[in-house]
Design a protein that fits this description.
Blueprint: E1 2-11, E2 14-24, E3 29-33, H1 40-48, E4 56-65, E5 68-69, H2 75-81, E6 83-86, H3 98-104, H4 117-123, H5 125-129, H6 140-152, E7 158-162, H7 170-185, E8 189-193, H8 197-203, E9 206-211, E10 214-220, H9 221-225, H10 228-235
Parallel strand pairs: 3-8, 3-9, 6-7, 7-8
Antiparallel strand pairs: 1-2, 1-4, 4-5, 9-10
Helix pairs in contact: 3-6
Bound molecules: adenosine-5'-triphosphate (ATP).
């Protein structure tokens, strides 16, 4: 479904990606792993068409979704192709209510896709309880559920999360992991960044390790478990 081959990208004069390869098949959960500053967020921005908005650009390589190139598409066109983003820091609209946040980005206004407002509320009962609260009044965990709900409202074929559980208390993190496991069980394809190795190894089918802007390793959780050298070389902070 998603394929990045030898992707290179940079910000102004400084190159950040030197050859990133990532693939995600339908129904698959894939993680991007690597230490801080290695290029994970840049990869996600490149996929979503968001690099230009932060002074960056794609330099080379290929990036396709369902066989059509994503290179050069603006973010709203990438979203229309079926990619939904939960951005780093959640970035929900603080002055809008929960319900307004959900409706603001809904792509499927005639309600034929899996994710309608009632479906989101059934999946996240907490959001229904908080539907009239402004985004700013929510806890971190509720904000992350809202950010996930908002992305699902576009009925994405691939859901992308940049830092799925960063900054959340352990008990709230566990709730987010269970939400992602329920989505996976429904066949939702997911590409996610998170530093919690234990949790991502339980959830994901495959991992892509990025080091200094390059894909240096890819494999299953079992393969990662059996390869302590990969963890020592690329994942220890
Ligand atoms: P983190 O986990 O810290 O978010 P990351 O793996 O997501 O790390 P990126 O944020 O993609 O890494 O950063 C890759 C490189 O690009 C780093 O050297 C970083 O300093 C640089 N970089 C990121 N954003 C920008 C920007 N807006 N302008 C210039 N350089 C940037």
């Amino acid at each position: 479904m998603l394929g990045l081959q030898n992707l290179t990208a940079g910000y102004g004069e400084s190159q950040a990606l030197f050859g990133v390869d990532v693939s995600v098949a339908a129904g698959e959960v894939v993680t991007l792993l690597g230490r801080n500053g290695m290029g994970k967020t840049t990869t996600v921005r490149a996929i979503m068409g968001l690099l230009p908005s932060v002074g960056g650009r794609i330099l080379g390589g290929a990036m396709q979704f369902d066989g059509a190139s994503l290179v050069g598409l603006p973010p709203h066109r990438v979203a229309q192709r079926g990619l939904g983003l939960v951005p780093e820091g959640r970035q929900i609209f603080p002055t809008l209510t929960v319900e307004e946040n959900l409706i603001a980005t809904a792509a499927d206004r005639d309600g034929r896709g899996r994710w309608t407002l009632p479906a989101i509320y059934a999946f996240f009962p907490r959001l229904r309880e908080r539907r009239g609260n402004s985004g700013a009044k929510l806890s971190g965990g509720e904000q992350q559920m809202l950010a996930i709900g908002r992305a699902l409202m576009t009925n994405p074929r691939l859901l992308i999360l940049d830092e799925a559980t960063e900054g959340l208390a352990p008990i709230i993190r566990a709730e987010i992991w269970s939400v992602l496991a329920r989505l996976k069980a429904e066949g939702q394809a997911i590409l996610l960044i998170d530093k919690n190795l234990g949790a991502v190894m339980r959830l994901a089918d495959r991992h892509v390790v990025i080091e200094k802007g390059r894909t240096v390793w890819t494999g299953s959780s079992a393969e990662l478990d059996a390869d302590p050298a990969v963890r020592d070389d690329y994942l220890h902070l």
